[in-house]
Model the fold of this input.
Amino acid sequence: MKKILVLLIITLAAFASCKKDDFMDRFVPEVLYYEKDKVENADFTTTTLAAGITEWNVKCRVSAPSKLKEIRLYKTEKGKSEELLETYTDFQLTPNVFNVKYLLENIAAETVIRIDAADLKDHHTVRSFTIKVTP
Done:
């Protein structure tokens, strides 16, 4: 009887000491680009500007169930180095969802926009969007 009781106590102690999985740790930030008023196609990752058009409104919905910490917006123009355009860190009004809207001007060559989103648990998601130019 004592052996069963000792075995039961050891088993309970072993289960109690196991680290509990936080369900929210499984979710990373989500980055979705869009063109009109809202996300209509989760696979929207490229566009081609018509001849003579040199501007594009970069629109992106970034969400994180563990609350957003930081969003960085980068631009790489063909043949040039990547540059940081904007850093967003103020999410007090909407801590879980943020809509990035950035007017990109003077687009003369293929340009790649990259968003790096981080949540409070330091999970990162990086997603790119390509703007092609019609010659």
